[in-house]
Design goal:
Layout lengths: L5 H5 L7 H15 L8 H17 L2 H10 L3 H10 L9 E6 L12 H8 L8 H8 L14 E6 L9 E7 L1 H6 L1 E9 L2 E9 L8 E4 L15 E7 L6 E3 L2 E9 H6 L1 E6 L5 E6 L8 E4 L5 E2 L2 E5 L2 E8 L6 H24 L1
Parallel strand pairs: 3-7, 9-15
Antiparallel strand pairs: 1-2, 4-5, 6-7, 8-9, 10-11, 12-15, 13-14
Length: 342
Amino acid sequence: MEFKDYYATLGVSKTATDKEIKAAFRKLARKFHPDVNPGDAAAELQFKEINEAYEVLSDAAKRKKYDELGANWRMYEQAQQQGAGGGAPFNVRWTWSGAGAPGGFRTMTEEEVEEMFGGGDESPFSDFFRTFFGGGAAGPAGGRAGQRARATRVPRDRRGRDVEHALTLDLEDVLQGTVQKLSIQHGGQARTVDVRIPAGVTDGARVRVAGEGERGSGSGSSGDLYLRISVRPHPRFERRGRDLHTKVRVPLTTAVLGGEVDVPTLGGRQLRLKVPPATQAGQVFRLKGQGLPTVGRPDDRGDLYAQVDVALPAQLSAEERRHFEALRAIEARKQQEGRTAS
């Protein structure tokens, strides 16, 4: 079984506080996010590892199991969900008939369980035997000769399973954050859940909603709901990380002589952009702090980049044509003078 050191993945010590774990996760997530490293398979894999580590270490119950069991913690969690009927040797009462079983019940030793399920390193349960039995307690006198074991499942509380749900947002939702009303159905029962999505969430992010997964059995806790986020393309703005990119139409005369133009923002405001004389088509201007926020830090925003799209006149009046012809004559004279001088 592969052991993943989640503390090493996040670069924190085993005694790290929740705050330190969260800070380390945010720093690494920003560094390896696919939006920041497009087409980088190694960065994408690292980003997945970081998310997996944070999912475990940010959950107190999962972190406790991980600290206690190490590589076996995930198998233990699955076994707890499957129950004894799924083949996991937990929460099972082993009822014995024959000599040496006071009251009809006693705890089985590791050797006895291995005899039933198969022992040695090849056994799928061997890691669990060593972890939970630790060699086993000695059984009553009389040995196992002539005894026959049978396992009966004891009803117990069980945690509900985690559930994943796809959620598509508009870019405006990413800017402001949003509360989404979701209809969740498990086991034939439907319920409505209000889910708050933080501002700045990224495309492909996995948002955890604690306790909104499948209901547990008995008094067992509910599982969690995980929302896989996707963001719809916007007709005017392109997202690149926290920055936004757009095009702004600039009249030809403004591009040549200079002036001001309106630049729309994602929030609906219009900003005035000062265009210097002789601005070229395709030139890009930065409007600082008009991009998308960082999750958890709404005032920490990216920038808006406006690319100049020079608007040529669709038709000319007679007066405009005279001016353009005069301008052409000036340009032709300057070219002739340049050739003469060379």
